[in-house]
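Apologies for my clumsy wording, but can you show me some protein sequence, whichever is easiest, together with the matching structure tokens, please?
=====
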Amino acid sequence: MTAAEALQTVQFVTIKERRFAVLSAEDWEALVEWVEDLEDTQIVRAAFADLRAAGGDRQRAGWLTWDEADKELWIAL
């Protein structure tokens, strides 16, 4: 299901003069996944813009080597 489809399934209820949007858990999860994908896409675009600005030099762009990234991941765990 796409985010647009999930948004179309929303139902509204009014309780004590407050309006609430109601989604199924599945539709909510689809929206969360869509937002996460959008954020990931923005991160990748920014990283490639940095790389392009650095003339393709990964080190100048601030990218880690595979070994450095692997080491940081193990430290984080």
The longest strand covers residues 11-15. The helical segments are 3-8, 25-53, 66-76. Residues 3-76 form one domain.
